[in-house]
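Lab meeting prep.
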Amino acid sequence: MGDNVATSATPVTVGVSAAEVEGIVAKAVSAATSVVQDEFEKIVSFCLRENLTLVEVRLNEAEKNLELATKKIEELETYSRRDNLVIVGLPVESNSEAASTTRGEEPEPGEAVEKTVLIFFNQQLQLNIQSCVQLQYH
């Protein structure tokens, strides 16, 4: 072999300026930063997708619970209304009329309504009902 060929045992000195070293280091740092940034973005993106999935699952569960609660409320309202009797068009006694029949005391609002309903049942429907409490158990 010739004398001009460098082998691994023979060190080679290459002249590089400080500016060239800075440029090489800047490129290496830029490349490393880019790789780290890409990996960081992948990790953040993965975490966000995982959190979004968890939030979507929780939201779906909450929506199902809300639907179930709404259905139960509707069923309870329907159940509570099934024993109600709605009477439309009955004249309501004035407080003075109701007061004259209750020993001079101001009647409770429910008492005046009860009296009006009992009058309607007994006079118009020809039923013999003495108290609205009687109606609750029939």
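Slide two material, second protein:
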Amino acid sequence: MPLTCLRRSTIDAAKANKRLIWPNSDSRHDDLIGGIVERAVLISFASPASPDEESDFNNWYEQTHVDQVRAAIPEITQVTRYRQVLDDGGSGSNRYITVFQMDIADVGLAADALRSARESGALDQTATIDREVNPPVLVWAELLSQS
């Protein structure tokens, strides 16, 4: 099976609203150093509308969209973006993957919060995102196991 390769693009850590917990504990402590637990993820696949709009797309995504998604889902602990550099056929791609890690027991609540934010207009739209050839795809997942 061919492997899809990704290049990491990080979001400014200062934007993070991380909640820390002690290992093997459910109590949260903002002032204690412990492990960050992500019990769910939102994985977003999106592409710029055209190569000419790639820079504007990335600026909107990192400077506007990520903050608005964080505001809608305060349980987000970390956001990491990737650029797909190879697809199954081995050619380059301008598809971007964003992983929103969340400390939430019910991923459905996070999905409802994001849907409400979108319907209320709290999420700005952009003409720089591809909605036709490679439209955005959202994948919601809950933690099954960790090793």
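Talking points for slide two:
The chain has one domain: 6-142.
The helical segments are 54-72, 107-120.
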